Amino acid sequence: MEIERKFLPDPDRLPFHPQDFPCRHIEQGYLCTEPVVRIRRDNDDYFLTYKSKGLMVREEYNLPLDQKSYEHLKAKADGRIIVKNRYVIPLENGLFLELDVFKGDLAPLVLAEIEFPDESSARSYVPPEWLGKEVTHSAQYHNSTLSRKQV
Known about the structure:
Blueprint: E1 2-8, E2 23-33, E3 36-42, E4 45-51, E5 57-58, E6 60-65, H1 67-74, E7 78-90, E8 96-102, E9 110-115, H2 119-124, E10 133-134, H3 143-146
């Protein structure tokens, strides 16, 4: 189960420098967007992911792929291949902020996601002002939507 909230931070208002934290290079494409079937390269790891419908709470299943299988499926992806750098920043109470800095034609988009252990903690979380506008309940900011969006 994936329980997360999403935000549109202004990179100039962040109280930290993303480059001071671990960075993962991510490339992902979508074989299907309803339901979501995604392939992802995360540094040197490869996955096929299924996500159920939903905005803040969704089922998520990850299956490992090898590089050859990933490259084979990548050629079959619909829409654009999304490329982004993900910085992982520790927050209070054991939470982590995943800051996605998009590359290519989706730049300069920056999205911030916080995953929660349960719905109660997700709903009660009070985000700091620097996180910006919350877009959790907007499918417009799902990566599956961004893979199809014309820029």
